[in-house]
Amino acid sequence: AANAESLAEAGGALVRREADLDPAALAQVLAELMDMPARLARMAQAARGAVAVDAAERLADLVLAETSNKE
């Protein structure tokens, strides 16, 4: 939930409560977004800016560093 909220705060996602999201509600949100390509482009740009693109590599480096310190 925290990751989703963080991404939404950056403008790269929409967050809905699971209890409020049924198939019809999801279809409505998607249909509205599909009619707004400029908004989707802004959201995509915001999402790209909100994440560490090298997160997997950084995590692997951290794990390797920690395990080599214990040997």
Describe the structure.
The protein has 71 residues and is mainly α. Helices cover 69% and strands 0% of the residues. The longest helix is centred in the C-terminal third of the chain and has 15 residues.
Q: State the share of residues found in helices, binned by percent.
A: 55-70%
Q: How can the largest sheet be summarized?
A: none
- Number of E-state strands: 0
Report the end-to-end length measured between terminal Cα atoms: 36 Å
Specify Rg, calculated over alpha carbons: 18 Å
Strand content range: under 5%
Tell me the number of helical segments per DSSP (H or I, 4 or more residues long).
4
Low-confidence stretches at least 5 residues in length (pLDDT < 50)?
none
Average of per-residue pLDDT values: 90
Overall shape: elongated
Structural class: mainly alpha
- Secondary-structure element sequence? HHHH
Give short descriptive properties of this protein.
single chain, 71 residues, mainly alpha, 4 helices, 69% helix
In short:
The chain has helices spanning 2-9, 23-34, 37-50, 55-69. It is mostly helical.
Which SSEs are present, and which pair or pack?
Blueprint: H1 2-9, H2 23-34, H3 37-50, H4 55-69
